[in-house]
Design brief:
This protein has about 425 residues and is α+β, with helices and mostly antiparallel strands. The chain has helices at about 20-35, 50-80, 135-145, 200-205, 250-255, 265-300, 305-325, 345-365, 370-380, 385-395, 395-415, 430-435, and strands at about 5-10, 10-20, 85-95, 100-110, 115, 125-130, 150-155, 165-175, 175-190, 210-220, 230-245, 300, 420-425. Helices cover about 45% and strands about 25% of the residues. A hairpin with a 7-residue loop joins β3 (about 85-95) and β4 (about 100-110). The protein is extended and about 100 Å long. The two termini are about 60 Å apart.
């Protein structure tokens, strides 16, 4: 019998599933008999438990199991016959009336939408470029030196200055009352590196070992500690230790310690430039990819299945919980996380995923083997042993699937950018890195 598909609203459909009662009962009996061979019950030897006892104990769960299996098979067969691309899981409800000897159910579900892609040639997209400057290389070399700096205690008569590492005791009070997180002993920070609020940082400059000082501090309105944000506190600080930093000389031993074999500053700068150019390339690609995807969404017309949005919401909430766990938040598994916070993000992700899939299908933008190989090679170049990293990717199907997804997105990006109106913009290196 041909499957009758009823259209309810937009993407929502309904079909009727018929399950012959004889097939259902026969399968239940078969499974109960199989179960009786291994089930244990007091007073009976294994395999000798009466069917009536087995049915009484396990009949309900076996019946549900068989019913779910039969409904799943019936739905898959009906959807296949009607050539439906089902989005999400169907909602199945029993019907009051059914042909004699059969059980009837309504299966309500959504289908994947038809995606209509409009004219991209009328869409304006800003494509950014960026170059690695000598100043950026200088700063990176300075960072490498700072990562290997040492500290030596200053004479007691000298005051704390920029770049010194200080050890202090402090206690803050608001309206004369201590507050959470406002007290610490033997606390270390480096002056001038933004580890503390600017008022605090400035207040300790010039202090000598053994000296105590009280000063007011105004917490910013957007301070992460909500209890003190926007309030003024008085801090008592006692200087315990002052250490001056020493940066290693930019010489051959230092350069070799970074893995540069010939030990020259020129080779170090060349290596730094190569790494920065790789980072710039990925960041520029990410910016341009986002712009291309925005353009794609603008010209696409489609209805988005609610089932897919709900699935994406579940994933986003699960990811948020995992993030809370990583931060050490107590009760992360049960903390209330309103799904509406993620609704716009979920809708956009699903919409974009459907549009990208249609573009890939219609324009043959799948990842080619040589593209996958080239992308893995590029990723591996930033590691000490590229060959091992390549084997690590190639040996795992999940990792290769992630690489394939990135390559497909890159293909889509290039395709979109070849069709839209491009405005090129040279972005300063610092703006790119801090965006």
């Amino acid at each position: 019998m041909a499957v009758t598909v009823e259209t309810l609203e937009k993407l929502e459909r309904r079909i009727t599933l018929l399950i012959p009662a004889t097939d259902l009962n026969a399968e239940i009996e078969t499974r109960l008999k199989k179960l009786s061979r291994t089930v244990k019950a007091d007073g009976f030897r294994p395999g000798k438990v009466p069917m009536s006892v087995v049915a009484q104990r396990y009949g309900y769960s076996v019946q549900n199991e068989v019913m779910n299996d039969k409904l799943g098979q019936a739905f898959a067969s009906a959807a296949n016959e009607a050539q439906l691309r089902v989005a999400g899981t169907p909602r199945v409800t029993p019907k009051d009336e059914a042909p004699e000897g059969q059980l009837a159910f309504d299966a309500t579900f959504e289908i994947y939408p038809e995606v209509k892609l409009g004219d991209l040639s009328a869409v304006e997209v800003e494509r950014v470029t960026s170059d690695v400057t000598d100043a950026a290389i200088d700063r990176t070399v300075d960072i490498l030196r700072k990562q290997r700096r040492t500290f030596a205690q200053r004479p007691a008569v000298e005051g704390a200055a920029e770049t010194d590492r200080v050890t202090i005791d402090f206690e803050g009070k608001i309206d004369g009352e201590p507050f959470s997180g406002g007290k610490a002993e033997a606390f270390q920070f480096i002056i001038g590196e933004g580890q503390m609020l600017e008022q605090f940082d400035k207040a300790v400059r010039g202090m000598k070992v053994g000296e105590s000082k009280t000063f007011p501090l105004q917490f910013p309105e957007d301070y992460h500690g909500k209890d003190v944000a926007g309030k003024e506190a008085d801090f008592l600080v006692t200087m315990k230790k002052i250490e001056a930093q020493h940066l290693p000389e930019l010489d051959e031993p230092f350069v070799k310690s970074l893995g540069i074999a010939d030990g020259t500053v020129e080779a170090l700068r060349a290596d730094v430039k190569k790494n920065l150019e790789r980072e710039v390339k990925f960041r520029v690609l990410a910016r341009n990819k986002a712009a291309a995807m925005d353009a794609l969404v603008k010209v696409a017309e489609l209805d988005v299945p609610k089932a897919l949005i709900d699935n994406e919401l579940e994933r986003l909430v699960a990811s948020a919980r995992e993030d809370l766990k990583q931060r050490g938040i107590k009760d992360a598994d049960t903390a209330p996380i309103p799904t509406e916070l993620f609704q716009p993000q979920a809708e956009r992700r699903v919409r974009l995923g459907l549009v990208v899939a249609e573009l890939v299908r219609s324009h043959n933008l799948q990842a080619k083997p040589d593209q996958l190989q080239a992308h893995i090679e590029e990723l591996s170049q930033s590691y000490e042993k590229p060959a091992e990293v390549m084997r690590w990717y190639l040996s795992d199907r999940q990792r290769m699937a992630e690489v394939e997804a990135v390559v497909i997105e890159n293909n889509v990006t290039q395709h979109v950018l070849s069709l839209v109106k491009i405005t090129d913009k040279a972005l300063p290196f610092d703006d790119l890195m801090t965006a």
